[in-house]
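Backbone-to-sequence.
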């Protein structure tokens, strides 16, 4: 498998990790779009949200729980943050290992789709 995030998970590619537990790994995005920009991945390889099965819902919940903890750790829980999951090529998903972008640390404004 030639998955960038699996290689990061396995330590083959270095990352600046901020969170890890048995099921979830989180690290700084190398091209941040906000002062806080963390990528949160399940350690299990799932290509995208459309590929997540019923057996993965608890794992997806663990990713969301990690996002809450990371937001607390970075001091953005109260001011607010954005949690984004892109699913498929039209959404802008580039790495096909399900992941969430946690963005914060500034006023992100309304999310407006490009037309």
């Amino acid at each position: 498998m030639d998955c960038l995030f699996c290689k990061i998970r396995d330590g083959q590619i270095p990352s600046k990790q901020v969170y890890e537990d048995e099921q979830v790994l989180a690290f700084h995005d190398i091209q941040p779009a906000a002062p806080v920009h963390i990528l949160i991945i399940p350690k299990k390889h799932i290509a995208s949200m459309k590929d997540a099965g019923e057996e993965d819902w608890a794992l997806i919940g663990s990713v969301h729980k990690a996002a809450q903890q990371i937001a607390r750790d970075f001091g953005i829980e109260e001011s607010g943050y954005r949690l984004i999951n892109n699913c498929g090529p039209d959404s802008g998903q580039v790495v096909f290992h399900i992941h969430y972008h946690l963005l914060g640390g500034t006023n992100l404004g309304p999310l407006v789709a490009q037309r």
